[in-house]
Each structure stands twice: as C-alpha cells, then as structure tokens.
Please model this.
Amino acid sequence: MIVALDAMGGDLAPTETVAGALLAKRDFGIDVALVGAPAAIRQELAKHGETPAGIEIVEATEVVEMDDSPAQAVRQKKQASINVAMDLIKDGSADALLSAGNTGAVMAAALLKLGRVRGVERPAIGAMAPFTDKGILILDIGANVDCKPSWLVQFGQMGSVYMEKVFGIVQPRVGLLNIGEEETKGNELSQEVYSRLQETSLNFVGNVEPDRVPQGVVDVLVTDGFTGNVAVKVTEGVADFIFSQLRKTLASRLHYKLAAAVLKPALTQMRSKMDYGEYGGAPLLGVDGAVIVAHGRANAQAIKSGLLRAREVASSGMLDALRGALEPSARDGAKGAAAATRSRDETRA
Amino acid sequence: MIVALDAMGGDLAPTETVAGALLAKRDFGIDVALVGAPAAIRQELAKHGETPAGIEIVEATEVVEMDDSPAQAVRQKKQASINVAMDLIKDGSADALLSAGNTGAVMAAALLKLGRVRGVERPAIGAMAPFTDKGILILDIGANVDCKPSWLVQFGQMGSVYMEKVFGIVQPRVGLLNIGEEETKGNELSQEVYSRLQETSLNFVGNVEPDRVPQGVVDVLVTDGFTGNVAVKVTEGVADFIFSQLRKTLASRLHYKLAAAVLKPALTQMRSKMDYGEYGGAPLLGVDGAVIVAHGRANAQAIKSGLLRAREVASSGMLDALRGALEPSARDGAKGAAAATRSRDETRA
Model:
C-alpha cells in the first residue's frame, strides 16, 4: 500500500509535507511517494537524517499555485505535482492520494485523470465537522454551488458508504441541512431533496437545523456546495472569533492572567479539536480513486493524519461499495441507486 | 412616542415581557402598550408594585402559538395579540412594535395589517450579528428562502438605510455573503447580485467570505433567507458548542475549577455578548412600520433592549428614508432605486 503525497501542495509545503510523510512512516509504517521537485524534497529530507526505505521521490516539474485558476492550471501544467500524483493512482503505482493544495485543482485533476465512479452525477467534497469523536461528514462543501436534487441524494448515498466503510458506522444517520425540522421547511431544493431521500433505503433521519449539528445528531449531513461552504466557514470564523475574544479577556486583568496560565493546555487542546484540519482530511467522493484533501495550512501532524486517512480509505473497500451503490443510477436515476442500496442491504442481511 | 409590546409573544411571556416593559419605563422612560390578556398582564404587573403611568394594557383575546402555521394563525385569529398590536401602529395609537413571538407570524401580521413600503419587492428579516460593538446587520435571515437577484439588491438598500438612520453610520459598508472574494465566485444568484450591487450607489465593498464576517469588515451583509438563516444558526450552534465544551473542560480537574471560578464573570459576559438576542432585536425591513422582533427566549433585559431599539427605529426617520430610497424601484427596477439613492446623496451633499 503506497500513498502518493502532493509534496508541493499547501501553504507550508514542502517543509511540512515531507516532515509529515516521515512521521507517517515512523508512526504507522506508511509508504509514501513524495511527488514534486526532487531537489527541494531532498533538501527537506536531509534535515531529518537518513531517509527510511519506503519514502520515495517522484519527480514533478510544475506546481499549481493557490491563485491559479484550478481547472486551467491542471490542464495547462501537465507536469504539475497534483497531476503526476494522480497518474500514480491511475497506473496503479499508488493506492491513495493526499494533497494540501488548492481543493479545486485537486478535484479538477482527479476528474481529468481518474474520472467519476460510474453512475455518479457530480463528485462532492466532504469535510469532517469537528463536533463529535468520529466527526460528522458534511458534503458538498464547495464542488457544486448550484445543485440539482438528484445530486444531493447521491451525496447522501456516497456519504453513507464512506462513513460505513471508513469509520465502521452501521447504517450511518443521514440528515439534510435545512432551516426547519419539518418536511415543508426550506427552499425548493431542500423540499425536493427531502422527499427523494425518504424514498431511498438510506437511514435518513430528516432535516437538521444548523444549530443542532454540533450535537452530533447525524453522521452524514447533506447540503449543496454553496450552503455547505458557508456552514464550514462560519464555523471556522466563529471559533476563531470566540477564541480570540477569550485570549483578550484572559489577558485583560492580572488575576485572569494567572488563571489563564493554569488553563492554557486545556484551552489549546480545545482549540485544536475545533479545527477542521485536525480530522485527517476531507475526501473527494465520487471520483474513481481514494483522494483526500488536507487543509491548506496543514502542518506535519495534519499531513501524517491525512496520510493515515488516505490509507484507511484505500483499504476500506469504500470505492467498491460506492460502485455497487451508485452504478445503476446511470441507467435509472436516483430511484435505481436507491434500489441498488436496498438490494445491497438485503444481500448482507 | 408609544411602543406596542406583544405581551403574549415569546417563550417567557407574559412574565418577562411585562417585567421588561417596566424596566424600559424605569430606565428609559418608554411608554408601552402591553397587548394581550388583561388578567394575565395585570397579575404580572401586580408583582412589581404600583404600575407607573405610561404603561397601558390593550386587550387581545387570542395568541399565536409557536407551533401554529404563522400565516394561517394570523388570518384566523383576528384577536391575536400580534394582530391587535399591529392595529395600534396602523391607527396611529403606537409608533413602533416589539414582539418575541413567532417571527413568521410577526411578518405575516405586518404584511396583513401594515403592508409593504411602496417599491419594496420583498420585506426581509434582519439580525444583528454579535461580532462588533454596533453589530452587523445580516439580511435576509429567513423571510425569503428562494430569492430573485433584485430582492437581494433591495436588501442591501434597506440594510444601508437602517444602519445609517438607526446607528448613525455614514455610508454603511454593504457586503455580499459569498464563498469566495472574487466577482466570479459563488452560485448563479450571488454572481448576478454582485454585478447588480456594483451598479447601485451603495457603498458596496464586494463579496465577504463567511469566516471574515466576525472581523467586522461590513456593516450590512446581504444574503438570501436560506443561507442567512443557516449562517445565523451555525453561529449560535458553534457558540453553544464551544461554551459547553469550555464548561466541561473547566469542571474536569480541581485546579481548573479554581481558575474557572476566577474567570466566571468574564466568561459569562463573553457568552452573553455572543448572543444574537442581546442586540436589541431584529428589524423587519420593508414593512410599512417600525417592527422589531426579539428572540423567542427573550428575558426582561432583552425585552427592555428591544423596546429601546423599537423607539430608536421609530424616531430615526428610517421609514421615510426607506420610502425615499425604494419607491422609484416600483417604476424603474433596481436602477431607479440606485438613482434615487444617488439623488438623495446629492441633496444631502
């Protein structure tokens, strides 16, 4: 099992990507193909002493920059590290891929090189919301901003398969992010998706209001990519705001400062728990390969977690299950996918 | 200046509504018409000793319950407290209205009794986001879940007038809630609204990503009612989550408990600052009257703040300014409204 790592992707690459690969090798025995500029990667590797067996360099001469137009850059820079890394999956040299680069570019490269799982109308980007021990998979968080109802139904199906296979959750609870609990609440899209999700064999638990998400009432939260992106970014912004207010408050008086010194380790731990980036990365669901995106600011620890997650996804049978759950929808639409999920359940039972 | 208070509206009515009215009278000299069941109101008033002059009771024999269908209840329960309170504005007996009842019912009653300001396509519900001293007005947060671009342009115009007149902000900064900074980012709706907002004479500062909102980069944040509702509820849910985690952490070890005891007043203050309900209530913008909605869980302090806000809105000239800014749009569309805003600016200059 080899994970391809886009060594040049992310704000802190290649320093943290290389360091993270070495940690993943040391702690979990993960073999990593570091894809990028060999000189830069070798320089980073040299900082850590002798490079262990199982850490390889694969040359890529170009990089997709954060301000490139993702789709264009992926098409134009054929030797970009993300393209070369995708090629490793495509030709079977690697089993999974991790990148902390531009998410849009990773999605574009995955679509270009790997394509979609047959039957998938639109791949989605998932994020693990940091509110429960296992996390809650929210999807889509930005790949599809104007969605058809059938796409969201598939997001529910893909998310359910992911949480079942990768996290071992039996019959994951699937909810629809909406502004009211009742079936009749929400915009046209959410009302239509509600009734279609009811027709599937998913463990659909209904609408979930945004303020109830942190209570962990679902394992998979379905939404369109615009709303999902807003929800994720509001979460990050509010957490940043509260912790910065907390820091100011704790620094405002002498006796607060003393109390704060006592609490610092606990607060730091709380803060890092609230970080989407700490949850091992976000899956691209519906592309034909195990592709995980890490946060753009991922440090070595986050890269290590992401590499572990990528290996877990590759070895989980998630992709095969996804094929089984979704392929018929290419013929029959959402209903076919629902029927397929049902028959899969029956086979298991 | 008299403010009509829906004494029966809200989870804690009439106990907290009556107590709040008395606080508003005592602290700010606000005259309040308590609209509701006279016996229940008198019983609450009696708890506080002699009722001061300027606190009047206006009888209403029905109540819109939180689980009523808002629009239906307002139509069927003609003697509902919210309807009777709206009538007081309509006939000139009161200058403004505050309710902590079902927001949908308040909007329905306002539309039924007061109607829209001429030129307004869709009234909106605003909320004051608790990230800056003055607050950031987000609208719409739920009155309109499927929006046309022209409605969002008007939300920007109405929000700008509100923040200028009620908060004294010169040329309020108007931003569009979106998932990227660039003009080309977002869904179809946001791309179209972006280009239309640029054509107005508003102080439009462009797209604002959700995680930047708490930094106070705008005074008015325009969005559709679905996304706005999600953003507000995510904020509440994340704040609840963090503070409950904080409580658990602080209770987990003895030396944390001691530090927590020192910090408690500061943390309590921080928590209440993060509460949308503490900001004096949310305006209904575009209805032809000064109508403010308080949080459903509003206590006496929140009712007091809401009554003060209602009086401020009524005395601010906000409604006249709104008429001036929006009436031409009934004839010429958004462009006309823009021209009207321009000519208003020129008149002032």
Remarks:
- Chain A is about 50% helix and 15% strand.
